[in-house]
Amino acid sequence: MEITEKFKKELSDAICSAYDQTPDNLNLQIQYTKEDFEGDLTLVVFPLVKLLRQKPEDLANAIGNLLVENYDNYVKFNVVKGFLNVSLSDEVWMRFFEDVLESGDKYGYSTDSKGTIVVEYSSPNTNKPLHLGHIRNNLLGYSVSKILEANGYDVVKTQIINDRGIHICKSMVAWKNSESKDTPESKGVKGDKLVGHYYVEFDKKYKSEVASLIEKGADKKEAEKKAPSMLEAQEELRKWESGDQETVALWKRMNQWVYAGFDITYERLGVTFDKNYYESETYLLGKKWVEKGLEKEVFFKKEDGSVWCDLTEDGLDEKLVLRSDGTAVYMTQDIGTALLRLEDNPDMQKQIYTVGNEQDYHFKVLFLILKKLGFDWADHCYHLSYGMVDLPSGKMKSREGTVVDADDLMEEMRAKAQETTEELGKIEEFDEHQRQALFWQIGLGALKYFILKVDPKKRMLFDPEESVSLQGNTGPFIQYAHARTNAILQKALSNEISLTPHLDYTLNKNERALLRQIAQFPGVLKEAGQKYSPALIANYLYDLVKRYNHFFQDKDCRIFSEDERATSFRAAL
What we know:
This protein is α/β, with parallel strands linked by helices and 573 residues long.
């Protein structure tokens, strides 16, 4: 039982006994005591005032006396206005610490099995490499998956690969029209970068054609529709959907180039997937459900043959689900993907979509359409919406080729980590392999932490220079504390120091404060799972390291001393 839960139970028992109440009547608000005040746990008394009919301070004093007089766990208390601060005995903390050591690296994890959650993230298009936005998406989705696993859920990590559509056809058209018809092997580049290059080339030619048509008197919209490159891309899409062998063969070939490139990026970033879904497969199921939706009158057909869903009565607008030429749109694919995932995971309790906040409206519509189609589990679909990532140099623009490439950014982080580390020295004994492994570890740690420490809903500015600093709320600051603890453990083990603390050990201020910080982790982990927010854990970790540094730098907390019991406890801590 967590310390706060044990306190709540004993507190409830004491109040019910003294005031002739039942636990259901009590609104017990408990938190860890703020650092500025003496105590370990705090009861907010105000919600009890009306029920127990006493002034806040009088009631706080009365409850404090009840606890100290009837339970050995509570040694003293103090009252600050309507807040009761209670100090726990050293034995309570030492028993807690024993439990932590016994739990090992699963400390704070839930042991209950809570069912299956499907988490989607990444979901790239196969017409360009992954970029900075994908890095935030992948880190957020993967981290949330691990947090949910720690909270007792069976998590299926998925991505939907957008491997069809007009954007893919644009790269195909540009490659077909090129003289060189390069391959990743002939150019010596990753396949996703090569295909992305052709996507940019298409856009350049298309814009030139649009400008030329406008000069000849066409309006902008007409020029954009009638530009030869766009007409060619649309024809390529129709040929693909009709199963034209040559078109499908080129599509498969170029997509394989991209997949191979993605795999390299994912491996370097440290994210994995349990199941891949492909738009080229799921859109067909979506089209079937569009037909069923027409039969159910969930959808309607316009004169040009396009199919729509009228959501005006729900406060939204009309949404296209099938074009007039019969080709699918994103909504068609997403309907099919959602239903296919349910088919693969019939016990699925929730489906989480990790997608940027520019798609908020899209997912509101998707969930509503699924509900109208008769799927009540749509109420358990959740859009994990996150803000965009900016750099000090400004916003990214993918079609113009100025996107911040994920591989390039990771390499830049490695280089910055190398520069910072070499300035500090202390790696003279490392061979080249060890050096490079260290630079990658520091660089990617800095990148991951800097992104994950920001609340997902917030738009963020990623500053590579700031992220690799050894000072402040950064990954390297936390990594340094981790290296320090490892060095202490190595020394303790080499000196054969026992890491089994004694229950009758007397804690000092910084030891107690560090244990109190550790005790908060299960609650933070639970809240992070409820809010789908890795930022809660990242910032908890920063606070933990700051608290650890107070302990480490305290002259009264010298880890290796003549006091054998103190040395054993501090090395274990």
